[in-house]
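Okay, is this right?
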Amino acid sequence: MSTRPTTDQVQAALAKVNDPEIKRPITELGMVKDVGIAADGAVTVHVLLTVAGCPLKDTITREVTEAVSAIDGVTGVAVELGVMSPEQRQGLQQSLRGGQTAKEIPFAKPDSLTKIFAVASGKGGVGKSSVTVNLAVVMAEQGLKVGIIDADVYGHSVPAMLGVADIRPTQVEDMIMPVPTLGIQVISVGMLKPRREQVVAWRGPMLDRALVQMLSDVYWGDLDILLLDLPPGTGDIAISVGQHLVNAEVIVVTTPQQAAAEVAERAGTMAQMMHQRVAGIVENMSFLPCPHCGPEHRIDIFGTGGGQQVANTLTQRLGYDVPLLAQVPLDERLREGGDTGRPLVLQDGQSAAGESLRALAHQLTSQGRGLAGMQLGLTPAGR
């Protein structure tokens, strides 16, 4: 004869269910309104969603059902969904911010342990967003908590590359939940627009406010890695990132031709002007493995030497070693993955381009945060 489950057992099971967006137990977030247990072992769980029409309510329902069904003596599970009151959402917002009501950028705090990489380029069309997305996927596969801010306000392409272009983030009062996908948390101006096709026509101050909103209004939780996909060039967003995230390390993406290398050097120089460290250079579309002779025969479609030229120039200019981190070969699946929302490293991580991107991700995550080129915020003591 089975034993009737207890409320404590049900609460313990529910404590193992995380909200899909906030990544914390629903019991801790105040989402479990009450639990009812019938004499025959049937359990009813009342769950309060943060907002009506929560896009992941089916996930919550399924995981609550599975967790409670595993308890000995449970004969059935019914999940009833409600919505938090404004007061409950305000309490949740304050709890998530650690009791802080004022907006702040958590990654800019001195005690932040999040490693930040700003992926930059001198010009468009060099595959900067593709590199960012594939790096994020590999880092997440390593078990790291990874977030992406698509800071390319005018050319936001990261959501489409991750298959979430039509998803809108959940909002709790004035706090925004990043969209989870492929083990990554993502936010983009493209997700905040009412319509996907709407054009963004903002100037300097509005661009800065958009970046600050994505940094401070979004609940990121405890991230190990934050990647920012910057717009090409040395404009307003690059300056704003330097002002708000001095501790960010810059990865400069270029292609082999000399014209691209010259403008890529400017992106690295901008990092120095904003007192940020350049972590290194990535040469994308480095060569095409010959489809006839095999990978040992390289076809230099865009020339050679551009990435190393940028690395050498910035090493001299900045006064510390700026390495050429990777040479990623041409692979049409890298482009296809961006179109289908299925990054190359998930399609074929053993391809030459996939292996190069995986090696780059491991290299970046294995390095400690460097101090070269960064301000320490120290002032000399008077005598």
Notes: The CA atoms of residues 82 and 142 lie 36 Å apart. Confidence is low (pLDDT under 50) at residues 370-380. The chain is about 35% helix and 20% strand. The longest helix spans residues 258-273.
